[in-house]
Write a structure and sequence with these properties.
This protein is mainly alpha-helical. 61% of the residues lie in helices and 0% in strands. The protein has one domain. Helix 7 packs antiparallel against helix 8.
Length: 188
C-alpha cells in the first residue's frame, strides 16, 4: 500500500519558487515540476540557493513513486553536498517528525479502511490498527534507507562506501541489507 510521503514531508517544508537560472520552465528542478514535466538529467546543479535545491532533489528521490523523471540523476549531480543527509537517511530512514505525522496518517487510513470494510466484507484489513501502522512505517523506513543506499552507490567514493558499510551493519531487515550490499557493490 502506498502512502503520499511527499505530502507528509512537504507539509513540514516551506517551498519557495523555482530559483533556477536554467530557464523559465525549470526543467532541472524535480521538486518544482508538475508530474508531467520531465527533468533533464544533463542540467547542472543550479547556483542559486544550491543547498536548499539539493535537499529538495533528495526529498524528491526518497519519496518518488515511479522515479522516472531523473530524480536519482539530480541527487548524483549534487553528490558530496548531500552526504550528511544521505548518511542520516541510510542509517535512520525517515525523520522523527515524519514518523509522527505518518503514524497519525496511517491510523486515520486504517480507520477509513475499517469503515469501508464494514460495508464491504471482502475488503477487510488484516491485523490490528497497531500492526497496520507498524508494518507500513517499517516499509517507509526501509524505502528511505534503500533509496539513500542507491544514491550513495551511484555517487560513489570512499565516503559513500563508508556510509554504506555502516548502514549495512545497522540494517534490521534482510531486504534492506541486501539492497545496501548491491549499492555497495557498485562502488569500485
Amino acid at each position: 500500500m502506498k502512502f503520499p510521503l511527499r505530502v507528509i514531508a512537504a507539509s513540514a517544508l516551506v517551498l519557495s519558487g523555482c530559483g533556477s537560472t536554467n530557464g523559465p520552465a525549470c526543467n532541472c528542478l524535480p521538486s518544482t515540476n508538475p508530474p508531467s514535466v520531465k527533468v533533464d538529467p544533463s542540467c547542472p546543479p543550479p547556483e542559486a540557493d544550491s543547498s536548499e535545491l539539493a535537499r529538495r532533489a533528495l526529498i524528491e528521490w526518497l519519496e518518488c513513486d515511479e522515479c522516472a523523471d531523473g530524480q536519482l540523476s539530480a541527487v548524483v549531480r549534487y553528490g558530496p553536498s548531500l552526504m550528511p543527509l544521505l548518511r542520516e537517511a541510510a542509517l535512520n530512514g525517515i525523520s522523527r517528525a515524519t514518523d509522527v505525522t505518518l503514524r497519525q496518517a496511517l491510523g486515520s487510513r486504517y480507520d477509513d479502511l475499517q469503515l469501508f470494510a464494514s460495508t464491504h466484507p471482502a475488503s477487510r484489513v488484516r491485523g490490528t490498527r497497531q500492526q497496520f501502522i507498524e508494518r507500513n512505517l517499517s516499509n517507509a523506513y526501509a524505502r528511505y534507507r534503500v533509496r539513500a543506499g542507491r544514491a550513495l552507490g551511484a555517487i560513489g567514493g570512499a565516503e559513500a562506501r563508508g556510509i554504506l558499510v555502516d548502514a549495512i551493519a545497522h540494517a534490521e531487515r534482510d531486504d534492506v541489507r541486501a539492497s545496501l550490499r548491491a549499492s555497495l557493490a557498485l562502488i569500485r
